[in-house]
């Protein structure tokens, strides 16, 4: 190895060539599958350019991430019949080893294929399942992870520093179970990675010690597909809207094998080899068609789902239709969850005050009175149940009245501006009317009063 050689698991050259690391598990040899002029060749190393003596070299077969199968690579690139035929093969593989609702099975299959061309897109969704023990979450991660692009299946023993460094190095698909991290100190760092990893150009920045024992800021690129399993929704609403989620129920009629058979690994490798050819033939050639998400009303979901819908369309129009149906149902679910949020209840009260009195100022005290009239009984009933923090703060066993101060804090969380005069805080309607209207649309609240 020359001192100026570059170790990489993939490389896209300026002239359009694509190099992808491969690993032969029998001979334990690494190399590259090189795609050039619509033909594939196998190379042990690739010269960077004609003027440089540097080479692109793969990770060693002795590298722990390769030898221990922490990262899964193809062994070559294999021809396939068509995008739709490959989709059917991937779907059959998933349905053989995991039990999923048909609609989500379609989404999961398209997501796996999207992971192999993800780097041509600017924003990505995350694929996630939610469920308790015994619902098949771990199996879902294992099976989808075995055929996704350069998947890194992370367990609870990995540190957050190792997570973002590995994503930066491998630039593949992160696969992990939230349950392995939720109770640990590193969960907040994992959330930061998730919040940064769905869009290009938002790296994780850390201070790294240099040779002089001083610290320099270092950036780590964490963009890429992520397949997750968790027990509950994320508290962060923005992060939640980036996830394409399926709730899993206890498996009463499980048709998948209890233990993965010996042929599973070979079947997964055969699919990875075909999916690598899918990458070679499709990377950079899938049209970015925004009409595929034109009906979505949640901006973040619309932005992140575009990569999936474009790939679905490249597979087949019928697959796009099925993915779009899932997205519509999921959008309705997200809006329903938002409507059950205390912020939505406060917003309803603001709209109620506007209907009663079309004025240029709505006092926080008026909103508090409206809230008590509308929701006193509801929030009194839920005060002893597990509920989100904002809901808990409204009523207690000793105080069933809501204070204007509490309402004001939620109004601020909604992003609605407040002013203050000699009578206290109020919402300046002429300035905030458009924002209130947009919030009503976002929360699916069809109560906005008509203008005079």
Descriptive account of the structure:
The chain is globular, with a radius of gyration of 26 Å. With 452 residues, it is α/β, with parallel strands linked by helices. It has helices at 64-67, 83-97, 102-115, 137-147, 160-170, 187-196, 237-240, 263-282, 299-315, 317-339, 342-356, 364-382, 389-392, 404-413, 429-442; strands spanning 6-7, 10-12, 18-24, 29-36, 39-43, 46-47, 55-57, 126-130, 151-154, 173-177, 204-209, 215-220, 226-230, 243-247, 361-363, 419-421, 424-428. It is built from 15 helices and 17 strands. The strands form 5 sheets. It has a 5-stranded parallel beta sheet with strand order 9-10-13-8-14, sandwiched between helices. The termini are far apart. 42% of the residues lie in helices and 17% in strands. It has 3 domains: 6-63, no CATH class; 83-338, P-loop containing nucleotide triphosphate hydrolases (Rossmann fold), CATH 3.40.50.300; 340-442. The model is unreliable at 382-400 (pLDDT under 50).
Largest sheet: 5 strands, parallel
Q: In the CATH hierarchy, what is the architecture of the largest domain at level 2?
A: 3-Layer(aba) Sandwich
* Secondary-structure class: alpha/beta
**Oligomer description:** single chain
So what's the overall shape?
Answer: globular
Instruction: Round the mean pLDDT to the nearest integer and report it.
Output: 85
The strand count comes to 17
